[in-house]
Amino acid sequence: MEQLIIQLISGAVGGNAAGSAMKNLSLGTLGNTIAGLVGGAGGGQLIALLGSGAALAGGGGDIMGMVTQAAGGAGGGAILTAIVGMIKSKMSS
To answer: b/e string for 32-62 if b means 16 or more Cβ within 10 A?
Structure first.
């Protein structure tokens, strides 16, 4: 459960960071947060599935596992926010 919380929080942060960095792809604060939450959960789960987050996925609480989950969540949140922003941008033009 704590892995999912880490992924969601870091995903929301990653989504909002991506929206701030790429103004033309921003979905607004709420949109960036929602896309970040979804992307964060997906990115963190993907990292754990691929084995990089295996230490935390087994229930351990080591710092490297948490950092890996946070990085996967933030990356996933940022990537999904950028993808949804691109799709929205293309559809409106």
So the answer is: bbbbbbbbbbbbbbebbeeebbebbbeeeee
DSSP 18-70: HHHH-GGG--HHHHHHHHHHHHHHHHHHHHHHHTTTHHHHTT---HHHHHHHH
Say which range, 40-44, 50-54, 77-81, has the weakest mean pLDDT.
50-54
Confidence of residue 52 (pLDDT cuts 50, 70, 90): low
Q: Is 59 left (phi over 0), alpha (psi -120 to 50) or beta?
A: left
Whether residue 5 is contained in a domain is answered as yes
At a CB cut-off of 8 Å and minimum separation 6, what does 9 contact? 40, 70, 73
Q: What total of structural domains would you count in the chain? A: 1
Predicted local distance difference test score (pLDDT) of residue 62 = 78
